Amino acid sequence: MKRMFRALLVVFVLVAIAGGVTFYLEPLWVNDQIIRLHLRGQNVESKYIDVDGYTIHYFEAVPPARIRVLGDGTPLLLIHGLGSRGEDWSGMIPTLAAAGFHVYVPDLLGYGRSSKPDVDYSISREEKIVLDFMKAVHLDQADVGGWSMGGWIALKLTRDYPERVTRLIVYDSAGIYFPPTFNASLFTPTDSVGVAKLSAMLTPRPKPLPAFVDQAAIRRLQQNAWVIERSVVSMEAGRDLLDFQLGRIEKPTLIVWGSLDKLIPPSVGERMHRQIPGSSLLLIEGCGHLAPGECSRPVLDGTLRFLEAHPPIRGGESTVPGTPH
Question: What pLDDT does 25 receive?
Fold first, then answer.
């Protein structure tokens, strides 16, 4: 019995040491596994599908059987931003599914676990990937939400293919010109100072990272730097800017913004609101560019209020307090 106990203790210690070493060497990988396990536990499936000859990874979540009435719920497509991936919507996916939505969250081409071909990564290319992803999963029409660069893609999709979009939500979205206070290198830092600058632009309350996490963040950002750089170059070229075109969007639209967003200031959201007929503007006080993640509760509340409204909400402006986590 003592020998068995000692053997189990040795195994436990070895596993603990191995886990500690793994976390120290690859903390972001460990964090990814935790997020994915959480999503799996919430019945969010991780899937792959062929789109235009590329492998696209996506998350899919259907409403619980107890609340399904017809079909598998109202289709809702969420599009992530620059340097991001589907996991960044993890704080919202289970709640939206539980509220009756059939949620699809693809990794854009070049991001997350999707293919990374040698292409230009323009907004137009990503829009086509999203459109053809919808065709591949048999989505004739859906509510569409986009965050940051994903908002730009969602806006362009709604303008170009209005028959595909029921309602539109954009969160701290790019898409129209504004004078930037940063250069492209902000998104691909090569040292701790650069990581701190990026964090300060994304959140009003940046937290210092342990050195080993800091280095892991640099490694990951550098691995994806070439894709991010091509996306930024394409965006800066301005070919896909939507200035003076947003007036063609007639779908019910909600514009959500963190009041302290330094990356894309709230004035951009206010201009979008003025240009999109009948759009609604929701300002989240005290939150930055990462409002859907850091202030998920008020963002979710506003999102669900908009998506569940019958008839659809048209117009209006409101400000709610943020509750950052």
Answer: 66
- Is the same domain home to 182 and 90? yes
Asked if 313 and 288 count as a contact pair (C-beta separation under 8 A), the reply is no
Q: How many CB atoms lie within 10 A of CB 73?
A: 20
Q: Residue 187: give its domain's CATH number.
A: 3.40.50.1820
DSSP state of 283: E
Q: Strand, helix or coil at 119? A: coil
Q: Residues near 196 by Cβ (< 8 Å), separated by ≥ 6?
A: 206, 208
**Distance from C-alpha of 185 to C-alpha of 175, rounded to nearest angstrom:** 19
Overall residue count recorded for the chain in this entry: 325
Span 99-125, average pLDDT: 97
Q: How many other C-beta atoms can be found within 10 angstroms of the C-beta atom of residue 70? A: 6
Q: How much of the chain, in percent, has pLDDT values that exceed 90?
A: 79
CA dist list (Å): 197 to 70, 220, 237? 48, 16, 24
**SS3 (DSSP) at 89:** helix
Q: Which residue has the tokens 């972001």?
A: 28
Q: How far apart are CA 205 and CA 66, in angstroms?
A: 40
Q: Which H/E stretch holds residue 76?
A: strand 74-79
Reported confidence tier of residue 17, pLDDT bands at 50, 70, 90:
very low
Residue 248, pLDDT > 90, answer yes
Cα Rg of the chain, angstroms: 21
Q: Which of 177, 180, 201 is nearest to 189 (CA)?
A: 201
Place of tokens 């792959």: 48
- Do 158 and 69 fall within a single domain? yes
Domain that holds residue 141: 45-321
Q: How far apart are CA 55 and CA 46, in angstroms?
A: 13
Question: Residue for token digits 């230009």?
Answer: 120
